[in-house]
Design goal:
The strands form two sheets. A six-stranded mixed sheet has the order 2-1-3-4-5-6, sandwiched between helices. It is an alpha/beta fold and 317 residues long. The protein contains 14 helices and eight strands. The model has no long low-confidence stretch (mean pLDDT 83). It has two domains: 193 residues, Rossmann fold, CATH 3.40.50.10130; 89 residues, DNA polymerase, domain 1 (Orthogonal Bundle), CATH 1.10.150. Helices cover 50% and strands 14% of the residues.
Length: 317
């Protein structure tokens, strides 16, 4: 018996440690941004180390990447978990960014090679890909100053939009535009956070889909309750206030007499519980110098049915 308790305690500890890898607020500590040395040395990547450190992730040099413009992610699993659960110490993520300058994209668009090129990179990386185009706005500004004698065939904005649409349809690759090193660094960190929290959100979504209705979407007039129990009295008061034929004055009177649902439930178990509840005085706060009224036997009877009925399908009339 003691052995089983120890095993359950150990299993709970392992599960809690595993959840930290995916838990929001903790998951970024286990993420590594893998960047090719050739890309990390570019001037437009200068802000990435600072933004990554601010977000809590690490940047690692990965010279073995199949393309120098790729950015990949990996999740580091603690040694204790990898040994106990048989997991790999490094978990590769199935997303990648492909960073290209607008000038480089222009040549591929003009030659109609962008979709084929990105598809080849996606297949080599073996993961879903997002194309990041740096400096597109500045590129189109400079093209307006080109002379008619220029030997370079420039990409127009219409060509670029059509190429992005073709890329999305044929290669299932979306496109993001950034204009400054700071925007690029922030974008990479935003992707890092989304990838880090994805398993936690997917598990939460799977749990929500098991319910008959979406509980997280029904959040109107909610009462916040913290881990110390602060807010429970307000929640109990609101529960009574939203009942049919109830009001704010009614809920205040009931909650002043019975501090919790359990206290009211136990009181209704006694033979005179309904009578005691019916005699609860309710002040008429909106009318000056008026006498209080009683809760009444009808409302008291409905409260007893609501709290003590064993059949969940019973109708309260």
């Amino acid at each position: 018996m003691r052995r089983k308790k120890e095993e359950k305690k150990e299993a709970r500890a392992i599960a809690a440690e595993k959840n930290k890898i995916y838990k929001p607020g903790e998951c970024m500590k286990h993420m590594t941004i893998e960047v090719h040395p050739g890309l990390s040395s570019e001037w437009y990547m200068a802000e990435l180390p600072r933004e990554a450190a601010r977000g809590g992730a690490r940047v690692s040099s990965a010279a073995a990447l199949c393309d120098r413009n790729l950015i990949l992610w990996s999740r580091c699993v603690p040694t204790t978990l990898s040994d106990q659960l048989g997991l790999n110490s490094k978990e590769q993520c199935d997303r990648a960014l492909y960073v290209q300058l607008a000038d480089d994209v222009a040549w591929k668009v003009v030659k109609r090679e962008l979709s084929a090129h990105v598809t080849a990179v996606r297949d080599m990386a073996a993961c879903r890909l997002t194309l990041v185009v740096f400096g597109a706005k500045d590129y189109f500004k400079t093209t307006g100053r080109k002379t008619l004698n220029s030997s370079r065939k420039m990409m127009t904005e219409i060509d670029f939009e059509m190429a992005k649409a073709d890329l999305l349809v044929s290669a299932e690759c979306d496109t993001v535009l950034v204009e400054t090193p700071n925007e690029l660094g922030l974008l990479i960190v935003q992707f890092t956070k989304a990838i880090a929290e994805a398993p936690h959100k997917q598990a939460k979504r799977a749990l929500d889909e098991q319910a008959e209705f979406y509980m997280r979407g029904d959040n109107k007039k909610c009462v916040r309750v913290d881990s110390n129990g602060n807010g429970l009295s307000g929640l109990w008061q609101q529960m009574v206030a939203i009942l049919p034929n109830s009001s704010l004055e009614t809920s205040r009177a009931v909650c002043a007499q019975y501090r919790s649902p359990l206290e009211l439930y136990e009181a209704l178990q006694s033979p005179d519980g309904v009578t005691s509840l019916a005699e609860v005085p309710i002040a008429r706060s909106a009318v000056a110098n008026s006498r209080s009224r009683r809760l009444g036997p009808e409302f008291a009877r409905k409260m007893k049915t609501l709290l003590t009925a064993g059949d969940g399908n019973i109708l309260i009339e």
